[in-house]
Amino acid sequence: MCPSCNAKRAHVTAVHLVEQVLPHVPYRQWTLSFPHRVRWVLLKNVGLLSDVLTVFLRAVFALQRRRARRQGLRAGQVGAVSFIQFFGSALQVTPHFHSLVPDGVFVPREGSVRFEPLPPPTQGEVERLLRVVRLLEKRGALPAQGPEDALQAYQAHSLQQRLRWTEVDRRLPPSKQPRCALLEGFSLHANTHLHANDRQGLERLCRYGARGALALERLSRMEDGRIAYRMKRPLPDGTTHLLFTGLGLLRRVASLVPPPRANLTRFHGVLAPGAQLRPFLVPRAGGEERSEAPQAAASTEPMKEKTPRGDFADRQGPFPEGIAYPMPEKPFKEQSKPPCVEGREEEVRGGCWIPHAKTAPCSRGTAELQGKCYVPVKKPDPAPTSVQP
């Protein structure tokens, strides 16, 4: 539950997905959430949660293939990347899914794969798909159950302050939004769409799906010593903050720990590890160049090959594993140039370097000059032009 560790994991996961897994095609996010009466059994039984996710995505894939056949596209295949979250923005336990699904189908050709975009789903199609998920409860696959021990009682308390296991959820009617459906507590949202060229938006969406439960910037301490947590959106009664004692916050955070041995990022369809079409889709796989990712039929602008992220000095040339590289004759492209920070950095051959305490032989990622080791200084990133919420 470390906020900084979760932020790093979310960032690394998002970069990996965008640069090495997800092809350059448009995407639509499908978000499925569940009523209070069935959240508990999903939290207790991770296997059942996986089965529900499988049934949900099978329904989405079947919808995509049916819509493709109406356009004369046969043998179309689909895929998805799903993020399983067990928390909400108010630190409550609420299992739900965020699934990134390519907004179209992949049609195999001889020696290649062609992506064919599809129009957005209609409101009726979203509502019918949600009714398929609702059938799971009607057929007894999602029974209402209660807690059995102390930890489960804490988790149940974070589900709802006054929890009723068998009552139908009573909520305020939500504002009508396109491609969103609500049925007896089940909720399905499919109105978030990303263009094929919006890779930054795709990375931001992946980072949102892989994020942790606790946002450190929302925590503050009150004058009476209690801890306040600012919610993402106010409650219907106008409440904006949750107040905890130190022990109460620990109890709430402990209830948000995911079940052990549960994979929170899942791959499905043509994006699954063993899929036959995956080598034709991923931008890079196993460090070797693959065929170019399929482009959307409506997009004619060529995609630029993105450089994998990492230490900028390691990308300047193929240096042997485990040893340093010689001091270059001129600064790296991304290296900071004089004036250097006095007392901390040194100017060497037109660039700013930090002298390493270790002497030769130097370790990998450092430069060696006259028996001394140096670490290059990266020039600062440009100031952002806008602030993301």
TrEMBL record:
Any one Gene Ontology MF annotation carried by this entry is:
DNA binding
**Chain segments carrying region Disordered:** 286-316, 323-342
Q: Where is the composition biased (Basic and acidic residues)?
A: 302-314, 330-342
What region holds the Transposase IS801/IS1294 domain? 79-272
One GO biological-process annotation of the entry reads:
DNA transposition
Per its UniProt record, what InterPro entries does this chain match? Transposase_32
Protein name, please? Transposase IS801/IS1294 domain-containing protein
What organism is recorded for this protein?
Hyalangium minutum
Give the taxonomic lineage as stored in the record.
Bacteria, Pseudomonadati, Myxococcota, Myxococcia, Myxococcales
